[in-house]
Specification:
The chain is built from two helices and nine strands. It has 183 residues and is mainly beta.
């Protein structure tokens, strides 16, 4: 005798009713992202930061304008402090701007002291643009080890930040030569 009841497939509506399925969750996330997207471009008051990176060098291709970031880091080691970091670059990309947007790149020590505070301007043709900004930082003096906060500031409000850690390392046993900075 056959049962009059049919087998329910594992992904049927009956089985998923009352539970939040992956598909339902995915749909809700997409719907939320679409609302966020609409809100983002309805207001051009605050640009959004897509990237904020510290690196040893930035190479810009002369033909395409594409940038290659070399030696990305979030930590610097030195044998002695205060330490002077001879040269590094800060790369940032922003979006959701309107016209020429003014901002600042700021480095703050763990105790709240400002190490540097540099102004910048970036032009946006449309809010969908994602212009890239490169800052060439030379002879940065770091007084002591610790965590430092690298910030992008717009209208006196940090809109993105990342931590750069400066740490003490043992000097290399290299026959008395000057120790090198280690990333």
């Amino acid at each position: 005798m056959r049962s009059s009841r049919r087998a329910t497939p594992p992904f049927s509506v009956e089985r998923l009713r009352g539970r939040q399925s992956f598909f339902n969750k995915n749909f809700l996330e997409k719907q939320s992202a679409q609302k966020q997207h609409k809100r983002m471009y309805d207001s051009f008051e605050t640009p959004m930061v897509l990237s904020l990176i510290a690196c040893d060098t930035v190479i810009t291709d002369a033909q395409s304008g594409k940038k290659t970031l070399v030696g990305l880091f979030n930590s610097v080691g030195a044998a002695r402090y205060p330490h002077v970091l001879p040269r590094f670059f800060i790369f940032a990309s922003l979006t959701n701007g309107n016209g020429v947007v003014e901002f600042r790149i700021r480095l703050k020590a763990g105790n709240g002291d400002t190490v540097f505070d540099l102004p910048g301007k970036v032009p946006f043709n449309t809010p969908l643009d994602a212009p890239e900004i490169v800052f060439d930082i030379q002879n940065l003096a770091i007084k002591s080890t610790g965590s430092y906060e690298l910030q992008i500031v717009h209208n006196d409000i940090p809109i993105a930040s990342r931590i750069l850690t400066f740490r003490q390392i043992e000097p290399p046993q290299n026959g008395g030569r000057q120790p090198q900075t280690q990333h």
